[in-house]
């Protein structure tokens, strides 16, 4: 669902995938190898939204702003399920946790991690490589190399997803029964806790 608005037509690089159940409106520029999940709403009706290369905006996220503002989700930013980005800028390779809210004129520093359900208040500036949790959100520590490695691997899975969606995602009629030889997906990625406990 891609809509023009007041003459602004979204730009989506051919390598990216916007799910048919997402809504992308107006002055939106989506770079290479981006994934926009079902239920996501990216509304460039009041200002420009730039989604740089390798960004993923997962299911039921909202990206919007006050009139006249423009925002950027920088390269490899990772926006978890249900998050709201309202008039905020996201730094390179940051992670925004599920159902978190990032408010107007906030800046999330590169390689920072915002925990699930955090509220980052308006005009908050989060420095590079900060781990942020809570409501209101507070910096609790610096993000270490292991955490960034884990985050980056997760984002790489989402960067593979657009190609896989273009090649294999199809609307179908559901099966009536579970096939006898139904394959289970490979276990290719662990939680952060599982990753640390294995070392």
From TrEMBL:
<dbReference type="InterPro" id="IPR050484">
    <property type="entry name" value="Transf_Hexapept/Carb_Anhydrase"/>
</dbReference>
<keyword id="KW-0808">Transferase</keyword>
<dbReference type="InterPro" id="IPR001451">
    <property type="entry name" value="Hexapep"/>
</dbReference>
<protein>
    <submittedName>
        <fullName>Transferase hexapeptide repeat family protein</fullName>
    </submittedName>
</protein>
<dbReference type="GO" id="GO:0016740">
    <property type="term" value="F:transferase activity"/>
</dbReference>
<dbReference type="Pfam" id="PF00132">
    <property type="entry name" value="Hexapep"/>
</dbReference>
<dbReference type="InterPro" id="IPR011004">
    <property type="entry name" value="Trimer_LpxA-like_sf"/>
</dbReference>
């Amino acid at each position: 669902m891609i809509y023009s608005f007041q003459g602004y037509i979204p730009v989506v690089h051919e390598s990216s995938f916007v799910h048919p159940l997402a809504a992308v409106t107006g002055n939106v520029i989506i770079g290479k190898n981006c994934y926009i999940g079902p239920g996501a709403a990216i509304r460039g009706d009041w200002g420009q939204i730039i989604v740089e290369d390798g960004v993923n905006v997962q299911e039921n996220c909202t990206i919007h702003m006050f009139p006249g503002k423009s925002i950027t989700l920088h390269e490899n930013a990772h926006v978890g399920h249900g998050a709201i980005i309202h008039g905020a800028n996201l730094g390179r390779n940051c992670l925004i946790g599920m159902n978190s809210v990032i408010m107007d004129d906030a800046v999330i520093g590169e390689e920072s991690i915002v925990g699930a359900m955090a509220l980052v208040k308006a005009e908050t500036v989060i420095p590079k490589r900060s781990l942020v949790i809570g409501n209101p959100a507070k910096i609790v520590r610096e993000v270490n190399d292991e955490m960034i490695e884990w985050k980056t691997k997760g984002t790489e899975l989402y960067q593979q997803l657009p190609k896989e969606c273009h090649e294999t995602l199809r609307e179908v009629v559901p099966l009536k029964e579970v096939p006898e030889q139904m394959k289970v997906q490979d276990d290719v990625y662990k939680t952060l806790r599982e990753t640390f406990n294995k070392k």
